[in-house]
Structure formats: structure tokens, C-alpha cells
Amino acid sequence: MSEIVPFEFQGDALECIPDGDVLWVGVRPVCIALGVDDMTQKQKLGAKSWAITQMTRTKAADGREREVFCIDLDSLPMWLATIDERRVPEEIRPKLIRYQREAKKALADFFFGGFKQAVPHRLGQGGTGIEKHLDA
User: Considering 2, 13, 31, 74, which has the largest number of Cβ atoms within 10 A of its Cβ?
Assistant: First the structure.
């Protein structure tokens, strides 16, 4: 059984649960931080083929055992990218939007980074303007 390791994310105290080579993140604290219903998110995550989730038995700070619904750390950015900003409290939207933009950029860099670097070199210094669309 793993112990919960607290960590800070976008100014919120969340839970990380190490299990071998996988880091799991407690879904409920993320939902609380974003003002969304954790049971609804659990159902939605269960329907997504990309979401790796599980119930994890943990030992909390108070020494008590409990089961926590978790998402693996690698799936966390994709999940957060799917949350509709209009469905979170207005005061939380800027935080969610900021993270979603970071996730978008990371995905674009991963998938198109080499292409984005090659385009200006292949077409001369002027470029084509396509790179601004890839950064959007």
C-alpha cells in the first residue's frame, strides 16, 4: 500500500500516490480545486480510452487506509484539456485556461516540433506563416 504524497499544482494542494513506476493523482482533490463534480468526472474518465484510472488503496496522513480514485500522471494533462472552462466557477477559469494552453503547447511541440523548426529552413528565411497557425 502506498502513502499519499502531497504536491502543489497551480497553487492547489493535490495528492500523488507512487506505485512502482507509475505516479497516480487523486481525482477528487483536482475536482475540488476546479469546482467540478468528482463523480461526474469519474464517469467521464471511465468512458475515455486514453484515460488510465484505477482505485488505489492508500494510507492517509492520519494513518487510516482508504481507497482513492486516481488517474495516472501522464493522463492528467489530457483530462484537464477536456474540461469545459464554462463549467468551472468563474474565479477558477483563468487557472484552467492557463493550464490548458500549456498542455496544448506541449502537445503541439511534441507532435510538430521538428516540422515547425524545419519549415523556415526549407522555405528560406521568410517562412510561410504556417508556423503561427501551429502555435495557435
Answer: 31
Q: Is 106 left (phi over 0), alpha (psi -120 to 50) or beta?
A: alpha
Tens of pLDDT along 76-106? 989 999 999 999 999 999 989 988 998 888 8
Q: Alpha helix (H) ranges present in the chain?
A: 27-34, 38-46, 76-82, 93-122, 130-135
pLDDT tens, position by position, 107-136: 888 888 766 666 655 555 554 454 455 555
Going by C-beta distance under 8 Å and a sequence separation of 6 or more, which residues neighbour residue 101? none
Total residue count of the chain as it appears in this document: 136
Distance, CA of 78 to CA of 131 (rounded, Å): 23
Pairwise CA distance, residues 110 & 73, whole Å:
17
